[in-house]
TrEMBL record:
One of its GO terms (cellular component) is cell outer membrane. This is Uncharacterized protein. GO terms for biological process: receptor-mediated virion attachment to host cell. Gene3D superfamilies: Tetratricopeptide repeat domain. TPR repeats lie at residues 62-95, 96-129. Keywords: Repeat, Signal, TPR repeat.
């Protein structure tokens, strides 16, 4: 276990965590940008019950597990969401979106070690995903790894800068300043 080397999270950093959790959700949506436009029959929103039925017929349906996990997460049902994302990962160990979503749910549950491990896996799969470094920095900070958190924020800021995302770059720099002061 990493021994805390940082000061405990303050109210200000607690609000930053909420902002970063929102940014994690935004990153989840941006991974799926390449999805094709749905047809008329596909536009009906699935429900947990309809996905349960689909999974009864085909327990290996990765998309049904993923969609059910997303619905559980929207309802703040983190444990069922994590179980669905874990099943997606079991079926497809390179499913970056499932790791990202599971990490966000673990952050919500204050499972910082689990979130750190999942974000690390996303970074292995998608090393150019700036928001993942940003989110992993939150988990690292909560684990007491200030140096690692600062390193992740620096990488995040640089990737945002290189990708031309000025507002995210500026947010990452602001987060970096906050984390450096708390060292």
């Amino acid at each position: 276990m990493i021994q805390p080397r940082c000061m405990p999270m303050t109210k200000n950093l607690s609000s930053k965590l909420s902002i970063l959790a929102v940014m994690a959700i935004v990153s989840i949506q941006s991974i799926a940008i390449a999805a094709p436009e749905p047809t008329e029959t596909e536009t009906a929103q699935p429900t947990i019950a309809s996905l349960d039925a689909a999974l009864k017929q085909n327990p290996q349906d990765i998309d049904a597990h993923l969609q059910r996990g997303i619905l559980h997460a929207k309802l703040q049902q983190n444990i069922p969401a994590i179980l669905d994302y874990t099943e997606v990962i079991r079926l497809d160990p390179s499913h970056a979106l499932a790791y990202t979503n599971r990490a966000a749910a673990k952050l919500n549950m204050r499972d910082y070690r689990g979130a750190y491990l999942d974000y690390t896996q996303v970074i292995r799969l998608l090393p150019e995903k700036a928001i993942t470094y940003n989110n992993r920095a939150v988990a690292r900070h909560q684990l007491g790894d200030c140096k690692g958190a600062i390193a992740d924020l620096r990488i995040s800021a640089e990737l945002f800068r290189l990708q031309g995302d000025t507002s995210s770059y500026e947010r990452a720099l602001n987060n970096l300043k906050v984390f450096q002061r708390k060292r």
